[in-house]
Amino acid sequence: MNDLTQTPEMLIATLGARARKAAALLAGASDAQKADALRRAAQALRDQAPAIIAANARDMENAAANGLSPALLDRLRLDEDRVAATAQGVEEVAALDNPLGSVIDRQVRPNGLELSRVRVPLGVIGIIYESRPNVTADAAALCLRAGNAVILRGGSEARESNRAIHAAMVEGIVAAGLPADAVQLVPTTDRAAVGALLKASEFVDLIVPRGGKSLVARVQEEARVPVLAHLDGINHSYVDGAADPAMAEKLVVNAKMRRTGVCGSTETVLIDRAYPAAPALVKALLDAKCEVRGDEAVQAMDARVKAADEADWDTEYLDAIVSIRLVDGVEDAIAHIAAHASHHTDAVITQDAGVAERFLNAVDSAIVMWNASTQFADGGEFGLGAEIGISTGRLHARGPVALEGLTTYKWIVRGTGQARP
Length: 421
Known about the structure:
This protein has 421 residues and is an alpha/beta fold. The protein is 41% helix and 19% strand. The strands form four sheets. It has a seven-stranded parallel beta sheet with strand order 10-9-11-8-7-12-13.
């Protein structure tokens, strides 16, 4: 047990030291043992589903009383289907190919030295997240499967849910003979503990923040540990003049309204002035109970459209709100995205392959799509299993980060007695 009378710095140092020891033990564990631990953890999640849902109900009640938005309440909510999906996600990670020990490349030098780059764990990873309690299971599964120990710090709004899910995960891990300290949950919601974790470079090798802009900005500002993160999900769907109207309507409504609180939700729709069915597309969004904020041309299409201001083009709503602007073809769309996007996910809808290839090559985002909903921006949908997050940076990993993104590599050199002249 952790002594909650410790200072935040002492608490994180205690957790970090335990994580370092656990990471060393994981390095010696077989892949089969780690996969077995996750299968056992998935079963524990199913077995403990009633307790997890009851804990979540307490969180939901407190969150509603504290005025959490409907979109954030949706992120927080757990039911039987979501717990089952979380357990399935853990099992899917157990079934993934083991990245550790794989040879990235190999060469033999003229002097006979054989050089290989081999994937190895990062070590200890700190995850700081808000609202979504399923992250507790997803992050634990991915980190452990990649041979890393993890320190989890969830948001106060999901405190009870996180504790219940963590308990189930640890039950499975211990049953497989692995250390409980491989997955630790910071036992306090004191914000000072976040600051201590961000500075714990002696114990932590990577920080992954999952939450709102203010959280990620704080992490990037204060961290003394490398950070893998994205700030916003200001995603665009561009409807080209050559788009099929039925496809465009289906994809845009799905991209905005399937789940408005996820980071893959479209926030701005750009419509080519040459697209003939723009009024019908705007109407479809409004009829789906989405608030539309548009430029003057879009406002003229439907009296229900509100005026967009400059701030709208730079806003991640995470709600049933979308901004719409007419543009003069693909080049104008690319220019708008370059000025306003967060380099997360952007999509083009068109039957013109030339336009699509121009968009795919010119838009500098972690995920770029053609004729698909931006809601597919998800590690599970990419076949990666549960994701640790989506990185919009350019170093180490980009886009959905799963097992491979949670490894690094080392050089292995094999010689036959060579000495350097």
